[in-house]
Specification:
- β9 and β10 form a beta hairpin.
- With 280 residues, this protein is an alpha+beta fold.
- It has a 5-stranded antiparallel β-sheet with strand order 2-1-5-4-3, sandwiched between helices. A 5-stranded antiparallel β-sheet has the order 7-6-10-9-8.
């Protein structure tokens, strides 16, 4: 009876794996012996198209020769191999599997390989998007910071921030926005961000001055949000150095002032000419 119970348990486990995972069994040369429906769905090949074929059929050329050599060497030694594999489906699309391959042994020598995988394509896509976003942040010439909503200490600063303020990344992570915004105190900055903390505003845009490590000042436009990553929240600040914009604005103001002065001088000269002609 116990033997029957154990076999029922094993059968239940097999059924659960078959439903939740992608399973393929190959001989030691990589030729497919058994494949389940989930594996066929991801690869877009039918079972008949896969049986007897080598799994190199799915090669995406993503992995180096060293990666593949290590995998096959590990299996040939009779050891379990675990890793992430990028495959190419029949229609030319790519997908990722988190794969565990176990050798079946006879007298200590492998005679077949059992591969159990989970499709992680969505996770890999999210990672790629996150890495792409991170790379975009790093390449941005604008200053980008994240900082803790309680202590205000910087958590992240991009290359543009380091370049502009003159502090190293480690130095910045010991500072807060108040340390580089001389127009604010801790209390006044807390008051500034309170609409974000109490959710009355989604975003704040304001103008202030930044102070570099060398003491020099420059005008900035600040875009500030409170963002959530899972259960964690932090402030995200995108800073635009508006030095050139301020210069251009000042040049316009100076030009308008000069134009007004010139107009006044011309008006005065015209009045003098009119008066002179009247006297004559």
């Amino acid at each position: 009876m116990n033997w029957l119970f154990e076999n029922k348990e094993i059968e239940s486990i097999k059924q659960a794996l078959d439903v939740s995972s992608e399973i393929v069994i190959t001989d030691i040369n990589g030729l497919v012996i058994i494949v389940n429906e989930n594996f066929c769905n991801s690869s877009k090949y039918t079972r008949d198209e896969l049986i007897g074929k080598n799994l190199s059929l799915l090669n995406s050329n993503e992995h180096s020769k060293g990666f593949m050599h290590n995998m096959w060497e590990t299996l040939a030694d009779g050891k379990l191999w675990h890793g992430e594999i990028k495959n190419r489906a029949k229609d030319g699309t790519f997908y990722w599997l988190d794969t565990m391959i176990t050798p079946s042994l006879k007298n200590g020598i492998p005679y077949q390989y059992i591969s159990i995988s989970t499709n992680i394509s969505e996770r890999k896509l999210a990672e790629q998007e996150r890495n792409s976003f991170q790379a975009s942040l790093e390449k941005s010439l604008n200053e980008i910071y994240t900082f803790d909503p309680v202590t205000f200490k910087f958590i992240y600063c991009n290359h543009g921030a380091i370049l502009n303020v003159g502090y190293s990344e480690n130095e910045l992570k010991e500072l807060t926005p108040v340390d580089i915004k001389p127009e604010y105190t801790h209390n006044s900055f807390r008051e500034l961000v309170s609409p974000l903390e109490n959710s009355t505003k989604d975003k704040i845009i304001f103008f202030t001055t930044h102070k570099r490590k060398d003491g020099s000042l420059y005008p900035v436009e600040v875009h500030l949000q409170l963002v959530y990553t899972g259960s964690t929240k932090q402030f995200l600040a995108v800073i635009l150095d508006i030095t050139e914009r301020k210069k251009a604005e000042q040049e316009i103001i100076d030009s308008e002032r000069k134009y007004r002065l010139l107009s006044l001088q011309l008006d005065l000269q015209n009045k003098r000419l009119v008066n002179a002609q009247s006297v004559a």
